[in-house]
TrEMBL record:
EC number: 2.7.7.65
SMART domains: GGDEF
Domain GGDEF: 367-508
Transmembrane segments: 7-30, 251-279, 447-469
Catalytic activity: 2 GTP = 3',3'-c-di-GMP + 2 diphosphate
One Pfam family this sequence matches: CHASE4
The organism of origin for this protein: Thalassolituus hydrocarboniclasticus
Protein name according to UniProt: diguanylate cyclase
Cross-referenced PROSITE patterns: GGDEF
NCBIfam families: GGDEF
InterPro entries membership: CHASE4, Diguanylate_Cyclase, GGDEF_dom, Nucleotide_cyclase, Rev_trsase/Diguanyl_cyclase
Alphabetical keyword list: Membrane, Transmembrane, Transmembrane helix
Enzyme class, first EC level, given as a word: transferase
Amino acid sequence: MLSIRQLFLYLSAAFIFLLFAGLILVRWLWFYPEEMSTALSAQQNEVFSLNGVLELKKENLETFVTDYSNWDDTWNYVQQPYDEYVTTNFTTTTFESLKLSGALLLNNQRQPVFNLEYNDQAAIITSNSNRLLHWLQQGGINHLHNQPETLFQRIEGQPYVLAISPVVRSDNSGPQQGWLIFFQLLDNSVLSVWEQITRIPLTRTDIPQNPVDLLSNLNTARPYRDRCLMSPEQQPVYCFRIHHLQAMPQFLNLSIITTFLLIALIPGSIFILMLYLLITPIRKATELLQLNSQDGILRPVLFTTPIRIRELRQLRDTYNQLVYTARQQQARLEQLSNTDRLTNIPNRRAFDEALETTWRRLKRHQQSVALILVDIDYFKRFNDHYGHQAGDDALHRVAQALQSCAKRTDEMAARFGGEEFALILYIEDANSLDATRHRIRECIRELNILHGYSSVSHLLTISFGIAWIRESGQWLDRMSKEEWLRAADAALYEAKASGRNCNMLQMITPDVPFTESPVWQQSPD
């Protein structure tokens, strides 16, 4: 006959053996493969992140060469070269700002019109570079196509990224006159930039015997792996080693063994007692958590125990604090998701929600509301000549000025897209409408933003279209909010077609609903 002590010992030994065997089996069949899969997935994400940086670099270079090649001055220069074009547009500042190592312009006969190479250490531009001509003679001519292209190439033992674009007019009229090629050297400093962006340690390596492309399949997790940037001919151009941040999982580590020993030493009697003391509050908390999971609503946990257990109370208080914090973060995230980062006003998503809410209110109550679409006149010219930083600053100032026109809590100004903005304003009568139109124009004029490349003013101006619903009601059931938006968009289009720096009005009433051929009322100042 066994004593309680012996029974406990036998059961404890059997428990420990089964626990250890189960631990090994679960680790082998489930957790360890999952950890390896997680590590592999993390390493794949790191490789994709690095590839995203490379694609962005290629896109930026392709954008630069396309801007230069789709320029009337370049198109004219290929036909009749003159020194001022090169000395003005390809200075040391140009090469340094665009991080170019060389530039090559070819005519339709694939003959060089100019051939420039930049020495960044000496800050010297040299012409008639043998290096660039050598690449052209060694097969580079095969990459001249009718569409822009970016590729990696190895030229005289040095890795480069090239962007090639056909030379055409800015409006794509007239025949193609040749190709413009920009060269960027991939030196050791490139890896430092990629490391700063991706936070992934990288080291340059020599070209191996069996080079592997950057996006080749990752079959297993490894501490590091060697990858190469390949040319279109599948020749290695630039090779480096990726030191993955994700630590390699171990089958058994100190943490797992320690956890096992702690669990194995728990006496059975204490285990049963703890079950008795904890099962009721845990079951109630679990039921509440399951309910939270089902309906997606976070609720605080409320329970009592036969014995006042500090840990359970701390768990309850900590969880409830977490619920409170999560609710605050959820509200903050919802606010951020509805705010445009550049202009700090509501974005398109927030505008769509406000438009839906306003439309439902219009059909329930009789109100007069105007939907206004605003477009900055000749903003692309502003961006091209003053730079994207100045363009971003102008967008922010215009957005804040338009937001000041929304006085009521149920009114709004939002960024509609690009240089377009949208306003929802409550306007009761014609006098209020005229005052609103004047206020919108004045708030932009008061910004006093110089725009020397505008065709309508020396200051930055706007055009806007107004779709004004006069005395709404159930008659709006015959329309939709999309038609209201199209009415404002059509009014904006008409304002831009009428010379810009003006606005157009489409009044929508039960007697004069919006049609595809509306009667426009121009409202110049």
